[in-house]
């Protein structure tokens, strides 16, 4: 079983109007992390870049415009996934797992494929992605009313994880927190 834990940093909140500037994650095969990745992406030139989104991620316009082009990163990302998934086998796909990915990241990643003229996103990933925010909501349902919100940082802290707030909104850091939360709320033992 292949699981791709991932997090995106974007240039805004709309998968239609905005693009991706970071794709970070880790690939788990049969319960073992076999690879990590952190792609910086020059956003699609046809998409809007908002200053607010860049400020949240702690990057500048100059930085993201200096990143490798989206088509180059797309090819690298797809090659990475194809090391673990046979795109021609309908029963061989990866699960996408993220925090609030069902409502956000999955849409951006699918749009990223389309922006690169690839309509075969579904050849690599199961449509039933797993959202750690949803899994955590069940695990923490009795404690939610006392929490300040249900964002990644708050959930991680509620579960007793140490959070370096200066590193939040970096895809690599966020996906690591997501992975730790996933292991706790699904009952997999966590090694800290």
Written description of the protein model:
This protein is α/β, with parallel strands linked by helices. The chain has helices at residues 51-57, 61-65, 70-82, 101-115, 132-139, 152-158, 171-185; strands at 2-10, 20-29, 32-40, 94-98, 130-131. Strands 3-2-1-4-5 form a five-stranded mixed beta sheet, sandwiched between helices. Strand 4, helix 4 (101-115) and strand 5 form a beta-alpha-beta unit. Helix 5 (132-139) packs across helix 7 and helix 6 (152-158) packs across helix 7. The longest helix has 15 residues, at 101-115. The radius of gyration is 16 Å and the shape is globular.
List the helices and strands and how they pair.
Elements: E1 2-10, E2 20-29, E3 32-40, H1 51-57, H2 61-65, H3 70-82, E4 94-98, H4 101-115, E5 130-131, H5 132-139, H6 152-158, H7 171-185
Parallel strand pairs: 1-4, 4-5
Antiparallel strand pairs: 1-2, 2-3
Helix pairs in contact: 5-7, 6-7
């Amino acid at each position: 079983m292949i699981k791709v834990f991932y997090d995106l940093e974007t240039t805004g909140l709309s998968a239609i109007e905005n693009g991706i500037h970071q794709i970070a994650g880790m690939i788990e095969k049969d319960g073992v992390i076999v690879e990590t990745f952190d792609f910086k992406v020059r956003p699609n030139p046809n998409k809007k870049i908002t200053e607010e989104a860049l400020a949240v991620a702690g990057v500048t316009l100059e930085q993201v415009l200096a990143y490798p082009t989206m088509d180059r990163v797309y090819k690298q990302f797809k090659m990475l996934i194809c090391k673990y998934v046979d795109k021609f086998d309908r029963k061989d796909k990866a699960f996408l797992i993220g925090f609030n990915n069902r409502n956000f990241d999955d849409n951006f990643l699918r749009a990223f494929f389309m922006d690169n003229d690839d309509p075969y996103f579904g050849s690599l990933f199961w449509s039933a992605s797993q959202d750690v925010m949803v899994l955590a909501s069940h695990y923490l349902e009795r404690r939610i009313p006392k929490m300040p919100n249900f964002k990644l940082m708050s959930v991680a802290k509620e579960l007793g994880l140490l959070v370096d707030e200066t590193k939040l909104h970096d895809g690599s850091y966020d996906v690591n927190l997501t992975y730790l939360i996933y292991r706790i709320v699904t009952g997999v033992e966590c090694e800290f």
